[in-house]
Amino acid sequence: MSEYHTPVLLRESIDALVTNPSGIYIDATFGGGGHTAEILSRLQPGGKVLAFDRDIDAFANRPDDPRLTLVHADFRFVRNFARWESDKAGAAEARVDGILADLGVSSHQFDTADRGFSFRYDAPLDMRMNTRGGQTAADVVNTYSREDLERIFRLWGEVENARLVARLIEEGRQQEPITTTARLDAVLEKATPKFAEHKYLAKVYQALRIEVNHEMRSLEKFLEGTAQTLKAGGRLVVITYHSLEDRMVKNFIRSGHVDGTEEKDMYGRLQAPLEAVNRKPILPDETEIASNTRARSAKLRIAVKR
Q: What CA–CA distance (Å, rounded) separates 261 from 46?
């Protein structure tokens, strides 16, 4: 599991999540299975874990434990599958004790060159979490209009010179299709600041990855589903890695809407299905960051169902 992906904030997240050793829990982002394994280690024989991953490679990490059900699906469907499991058990409605999501891309996906997630390798420009279908990053850069390219780089990557990036891509693909990471990097050379290449390209690649996998829409649907799936007192535990997703999670916990829209009752009281347990996010300590540099941007937020 550690070679596939090192789980971030493992102790802190599972300490917050597991409050009932006989309960039902959801790991919405199975990945290397590290968080799931820790949940299972704290459950009694009657406890259960329902885990999700849309990357079929992750299924190689499945532990041999009858308490685990692993689903090959986007976590946006968490409520649907939780209801399906409750129907099988003869329960009237899905009600789980805790839901965990680690929103980071797995080390396996970054480190497997032919997945195209990283500019460190010359590889096909893919970036799909689910390699069995859907558009690739190459499809995006070669078919999107200049306006749409500018939008995704500005919105999903917070790239300051998004207009220039879009123009360079449009000009570059007219010469020949942009189908590899090396070709994309070369096309963007004029826009890439010297001595800050890695940080800059990370933003560009983040924007493409989010667009290819519809990550923000999936996160919105997932969060909505958690509020309908958790039982009263159940915990939602989410680990975020960039400002876009962290803002959505923070807004949802506070107001029940990812855009922060507030709904109040006739007495002026905020109507939100969750309540924050920690007002400020929990961050990894220096020891964890030193042993796993990908933990450096992680933020852990915890909420309880009202």
A: 39
